Amino acid sequence: MQHHFIGGQWRAGSSGETLPVIDPSTGEVFDQLARGNAADIDQAVAAARAALSGPWGRMTATERGRILVKMATLILARHEELAQLEARDTGKPIGQARNDITVAARYCEYYGGAADKLHGEQIPYLEDFQVVVLREPYGVTAHILPWNYPAQMFGRSVVPALAMGNAAVLKPSEDACLSPLAFCAIAKEAGLPDGALNVVTGLGEEAGAALTAHRDIDFVTFTGSPEVGTLVQKAAAERTLKCVLELGGKSPQIVFDDADLDRAAGFVLKAITQNGGQTCSAGSRLLVQRSVYDTFVKKVVELFTKSSTGTPAMDRDCGPLINAAQQQRVQGFIDQARASGIPVLAQGQVADGVPAGGFYVAPTMFGPVPRDHRLACDEVFGPVLAVIPFDDEDDAIRLANATDFGLLAGIWTRDGGRQMRVAKRMHCGQVYINCYGAGGGVELPFGGVKRSGHGREKGFMALEEFCVVKTVVQFFGK
Ligand code: NAD
């Protein structure tokens, strides 16, 4: 049974109600979570507020950083155990889960090391005046996270907030929250003072909505779907709170006719199969110049056909999807595309011997997909690739920018001038040239435009999101 972590203690939920923890690879229940409500959120926010005027609030940035670096060491010391937990909770292949735990530790190292490097400024002003610009924590930061990368998301969202001295209240996803809970125990062992980190598990519309509507939080950061992101932003706007939103994507991979096609094909496959396509930055639209369309599509089809889906322990390209609803949603996109007469170019395998109750869907590649079809515009959040031909550079740019999202873009060309011309015209938060990085890149500022959200996580810049600037003007004349 999993409890909330509030004020440094494990606490049963105030209602006594629970939620099942389901293994996506079998569909079986293997644990229970506390089903948090507004009363639990109240306790967590109060614990966070108290921490700010206790030992946590008095710590120097260097001391905070040391605790985070110690967390990284402890995470790495339990690497395999945490990777197995993450794989069981999310269904992802064990190799991908191992990478996620390494990345979570890396966030702790990175932001631990950075905690005392973002400092204020002194501004030249009038005679006999001294002006300093301070960077201070917001106070109590609220974090709402999705299920696709619980360990990485913890590192990406909560760790920089702690580095800047905020006290965090986290509501992880009801579908996958075991690694964030395990990190609470690790944080305590690393010496994090009570109340600096609080986790309340439960449903979005109960615990999540209670957290975003709470009157004593100072900042909200949300990672998840655009629909819920809009609700979160409205709740934050009610109290004029700062809100960072990391939402969905429909990211294009643009392949020009002068590209290294063999290299591009491998990246294209990985960018849509990684984490079963349940990655906000999945390369889910493949835009191919007409002159190499047949040649390039053939290369991707070969790889796609060999790709396979299996249990976490089988460690194939994909694992199962997170739950039955997601399986039905993704299958719905596939069925609708077939019914619209869009050709299936390739389908991966589902490995023999996967448990019948698991939420498996074979990776599927469709093309050519009409530019206005749902499959070309909407986020599937599963291993489904939409292939679309384009004519020339201008057409590629128009097409790449033609969705409501703007998270990532991949550009494949050997022409140096075109690389930068196209990169500058991409309306999105990250551009990869002759490479593609769905997920990783702790050091690289990340975030969206348009319906993909606003604000930046990852990298040194994320620290600026988690602190507020205060200008102090001092007259020191006689
Ligand atoms: P979701 O929006 O359904 O849920 C995300 C979180 O919000 C969960 O913890 C959920 O419990 C909570 N929630 C739900 N309703 C709420 C409410 N009314 N008030 C407050 N909280 C509420 O998203 P999901 O299905 O968990 O994740 C999939 C989505 O997340 C996709 O759209 C994906 O692209 C996006 N995502 C984006 C990023 C990014 O960095 N841009 C990263 C991962 C996932």
Task: Show the helix and strand layout.
Blueprint: E1 4-6, E2 9-11, E3 18-23, E4 28-34, H1 38-52, H2 55-58, H3 61-77, H4 79-90, H5 94-114, E5 121-123, E6 129-137, E7 140-144, H6 150-163, E8 167-171, H7 178-189, E9 197-199, H8 204-212, E10 219-223, H9 226-238, E11 242-246, E12 252-255, H10 261-273, E13 285-289, H11 293-306, E14 308-309, H12 324-339, E15 344-347, E16 349-350, E17 364-366, H13 374-377, E18 384-390, H14 393-400, E19 405-406, E20 408-412, H15 416-425, E21 430-433, E22 449-450, E23 453-454, H16 461-465, E24 467-475
Parallel strand pairs: 7-8, 7-10, 8-9, 10-11, 12-13, 12-20, 13-18, 14-16, 17-18, 20-21
Antiparallel strand pairs: 1-2, 3-4, 5-6, 6-24, 11-23, 15-17, 19-22
Helix pairs in contact: 1-8, 3-5, 3-7, 4-5, 5-6, 10-11
Low-pLDDT segments: none
Number of helices: 16
Mean pLDDT metric: 97
Order of strands across the widest beta sheet? 15-17-18-13-12-20-21
Alpha carbon gyration radius: 23 Å
Would you tell me the structural class of the helices and strands? Answer: alpha/beta
The CATH superfamily name of the largest domain is: Aldehyde Dehydrogenase, Chain A, domain 1
Name the hetero compounds present.
Answer: nicotinamide-adenine-dinucleotide
CATH architecture of the largest domain: 3-Layer(aba) Sandwich
How many structural domains does the protein architecture include?
2
Backbone shape = globular
Major β-sheet profile = 7 strands, mixed
For the record, the CATH class of the largest domain is: Alpha Beta
The span between the termini is 66 Å
